[in-house]
Amino acid sequence: MHYIVKTEYTPLKQRQAYLEQMIRSLALPRGTKILDVGCGPGQLLLNLLREGYDAVGVDISEGMINEARTLVCANGFPNFDGTSVGDIENLKFGDKQFDVVVASGVIEYQNDDDVALAEMKRVLKPGGHLILNVTNQYSYVTFSENIFLAFKKLPGVRSAVSLLRGLILGDGRITDIPDHRIHSPSKFDKKLAEYGFEKVAHNFFRFSPLPAPLNSLFPATCHSIGHWMERFSRTRLGYIGGGYIVLARRGD
């Protein structure tokens, strides 16, 4: 199964669009219990509640939890109290409690996959579904970002890049990407299988015609062409996409 989602092409919006499309593809009834691990400012959580799901969110950051609660309460759910500070490796929920667990942009910031996968499996009902994404190590987007991150640490490089951005975009601010692990999609599939998950669907995403840092200097062009490149997501050329998102089913 494969999805192409029409949305404004930015990495975060594209990732969330795929998450929502994968959940809808399951045709789950209203009231289905969904856990959003690493819910951030709460946009996915809000959208799930609007779909009628019994959704709750956790995040390691108290600031993000406050933002999520404010967003949800201000948009039709004034009495919502389903957010809490939580750790993906130590979820404060009972066994086999959720029908779906979503962890978007979280597992790659842990020391390894094992503890998080075991914990998410624990709180997921047998036959329930897990949706999560990782960074694709084989993408030239990922490779160039890692090279550029190392390059920026050299003396004088950061200020030079900031000056160049200011001249081209009128904004010299540089956003650093937090340290995170990268994954082989095929090895990650095998890791999921080790924990009793059967892959149902996947998508590669975060395509760009240019490597870093050129993609940040010409964002509109790269987003437009990157969206067109989504047609490669299911082919072998999909591996040039910087992100890999997978829908898997707990088999036991």
Strand content: 15-25%
The main β sheet shows up as:
7 strands, mixed
Number of strands: 7
The chain-level mean pLDDT equals: 88
In the CATH hierarchy, the third-tier topology is known as Rossmann fold
| Helical percentage | 25-40%
- Report the structural category: alpha/beta
Order of strands across the main sheet: 3-2-1-4-5-7-6
CATH level-1 class? Alpha Beta
Q: What's the CATH superfamily, by name?
A: Vaccinia Virus protein VP39
What is the number of helices?
9
> How far apart lie the N and C ends?
21 Å
Q: State Rg.
A: 19 Å
Extract low-pLDDT stretches. Answer: 1-7
**What CATH architecture label applies?**
3-Layer(aba) Sandwich
Question: How would you characterize this protein structure?
Answer:
The protein is an alpha/beta fold and 252 residues long. It has one domain: Rossmann fold (3-Layer(aba) Sandwich), CATH 3.40.50.150. It contains nine helices and seven strands. Strand 2, helix 3 and strand 3 form a beta-alpha-beta unit. The longest helix is centred in the first third of the chain and has 15 residues. The two termini are 21 Å apart.
Can you describe this structure in just a few lines?
This protein is α/β, with parallel strands linked by helices and 252 residues long.
Short key terms for the protein model shown above:
252 residues; alpha/beta; Rossmann fold; 7-stranded mixed beta sheet; 38% helix; disordered N terminus
